[in-house]
Amino acid sequence: MKSVSVQCRGIGLSYGATEVLKDVNLEIEPGEFYALLGPSGSGKSTLLRLIAGFVRHQRGELLVDGQDLTALEPWERQVGLVFQNYALWPHLTVWDNVAFGLVERRMPKETIRRKVGAALELVGLSSFGERRPGQLSGGQQQRVALARTLVIEPQVLLLDEPLSNLDKTLRVQMRQELHAMQRRLGVTTIFVTHDQEEAMTTADRMAVLEHGVVQQVGTPMELYDEPANAFVAGFVGTTNLVPGSARLFADGSVAVELDGLGTIRLSEAAGGFMRGPVTVALRPGAFVLGSRRVVRDARLAWTEGVVQAAEFLGETTRYRVQAGGQVLSVDEVHRIGQGRFAPGAEVVVGVDGTQARLIPG
């Protein structure tokens, strides 16, 4: 399959007085696995359907491989869409479901036989051609929907939350298989999800949307480590937003006095040259938790607190700690045989300034 670019230039879409997409600008590279991430109502699925041609924008340009698709009908675009509910024909066999698009295009029977066979082999369902969707598991139905889309050899593959109907274990397996398949084919893929874990584990880059506005674009690590605003900081992972006051030193570093949590020193890059009242993003892993008797590392800012709640998450225990007038989410790596603090335990909390980021606005 040929790898192509997708460009959204100033895309705007309104339903009456309601703006659904507002001046969306995206540059998706050929062969890239790109995620659109956001909460319900953010416009991510609307943008995906717009690329597919099911809705039309009133402003801007949509380019695929440099060609403006605005005037083309969905069937005229070399774009394949895998729906959230798979949309398989229940009365047709797996083979006929996959062949449907080729039959509609009036391709020769031998071509259809060859292409359908190759598509089913690609998704590991070569021996399932005579079954009907009702005889398949959820993961197998997802593979059929994917084969039906890939068999027409789209330039762009669109995935609208295709894993949301699967249980957690199967969802992890299928996203790994999907990612590996996309890498083999090299097809430009745009993946819509509200699940940050899915986006962060599969996407080369992703765009975070809120209320039809692109809040930030970057790699998963860039968005996690360097959020552009409080919304991105809170939506991509878990974060603590702590108010404080910053002052800039001659060497370019920044000191921030966190409300109730002490003073931390930030690098120039982390500080962003801000002064005065600021908001600091601190991930749950930016803290050290210990008993009141623990030896306190002088490189950290320390304050006393009380554990309000504890959740065992497997790899970590997440605590809710009241400290210095703040309620913090604090993660501690779990080790076998290690106890944990019970609600009501008196603790000390150390803040690692190297893990802090100032939030614009």
Detailed description of the structure:
This protein has helices spanning 44-52, 94-104, 109-122, 138-150, 168-185, 196-202, 220-225, 230-235, 268-271, and strands at 6-15, 18-28, 33-37, 59-64, 67-68, 79-82, 156-160, 188-193, 205-210, 213-218, 240-248, 254-258, 262-266, 276-282, 287-291, 301-312, 316-323, 326-333, 346-351, 356-359. It folds into two domains: 6-233, P-loop containing nucleotide triphosphate hydrolases (Rossmann fold); 240-359, Beta Barrel (OB fold (Dihydrolipoamide Acetyltransferase, E2P)). It is elongated and about 75 Å long. With 361 residues, the chain is of the alpha+beta class. The mean pLDDT is 90. The strands form four sheets. Strands 6-7-8-3-9-10 form a six-stranded mixed sheet, with helices on both faces. The chain has a five-stranded antiparallel sheet with strand order 13-12-11-14-20. It has a five-stranded antiparallel sheet with strand order 15-19-16-17-18, with no helix packed on it.
